[in-house]
User: What shape does this take?
Amino acid sequence: MTELNAAGTTEHDVVVVGGAFAGLSAATYLARARRTVCVMDTRRPRNRFADAAHGVLGFDGTAPVDILARARTQVAAYPTVRWREREAVRVEPQGDRFAVTLDDGEVHMARKVVLAFGLRDELPDIPGLPERWGHSVLHCPYCHGFEFADRELGVLYRMPSSAHHARLVAEWGPVTLYLNGATLDAQLRNELTAHGVSVVAEHLVSLEGPGQTLTHVELANGTQRRLEALYVAPESCLASPIAAQLGVALDHTPLGPIIRTDAHKQTSVPGVYAAGDIARAPHSVSWAVADGVTAATAVHRALIGM
Ligand SMILES: Cc1cc2nc3c(=O)[nH]c(=O)nc-3n(C[C@H](O)[C@H](O)[C@H](O)COP(=O)(O)OP(=O)(O)OC[C@H]3O[C@@H](n4cnc5c(N)ncnc54)[C@H](O)[C@@H]3O)c2cc1C
Assistant: This one.
């Protein structure tokens, strides 16, 4: 499917770059305001590795691809929506409009642009870790903690906030903080121990278990430890170079850069809005959907001069 709407126009009120949770949410609101909107999407949502999304109202435990397929069908039912299943490679201001170029060279013109292209995660290069991402290697206990409650849990040390992450994960079960060669000052170590968090200093050699499940880890000192879920804060980068091309201001968080926006999700470039993971921390489907609503209502008001 490359288009959901037969209309072949390349002139729109709004182009939305990225058609997953934030982008489809923005497109829904704009379509309901009877605005012409073109959604461009490469179908690589950040949580595509997970079998189920949790904590999403009405869709708890549903596969992310199924939630998005349903949302795409609903958005497509609006007559002013056009869908291009292609990568947007360039967004350029041209007078009071923007030219958005797709990877096949097609150019779409829009009065406003909503960026919703998500983040790309960089995972630690530990054997057995990347293939378990979204299954037994997880980013967030609120999203994937309940399913592992009271089992052997771990947190991989990535940055000073990993110690707080370990304390949080301890709410779901017995947890070990794997320092993987990093050091921890004695006071923090004592605090963690007092809260029931074990600390292991050795490097992790590999994650082991059948398929994408995890049963234990192998440590550099030759020992094994039982482990059923490992929480890892990924380093993330913006999934598209469009933000850099446009020169939008960024904020730098411990987990990577995000696009700076005001309360209406407008970036530092007037007329360009950003929603979802690229424009906030922390991250979740529900927050991305809410951002899409904020951006869309702000865009609509800007279009009518309010
Ligand atoms: C493993 C994992 C599991 C998770 N589980 C949960 C969970 O259970 N519950 C929860 O609430 N949250 C979960 N999250 C967080 C959730 O995935 C994100 O918060 C959410 O996907 C953000 O939505 P988004 O629309 O901002 O970005 P994304 O979902 O990443 O969507 C971005 C879209 O833009 C497209 N795109 C990128 N570049 C371009 C371009 N140049 N042109 C056109 N299209 C482009 C992509 O293909 C993609 O479809 C999880 C995250 C991970 C990593």
The first strand starts at residue 11 and ends at 17.
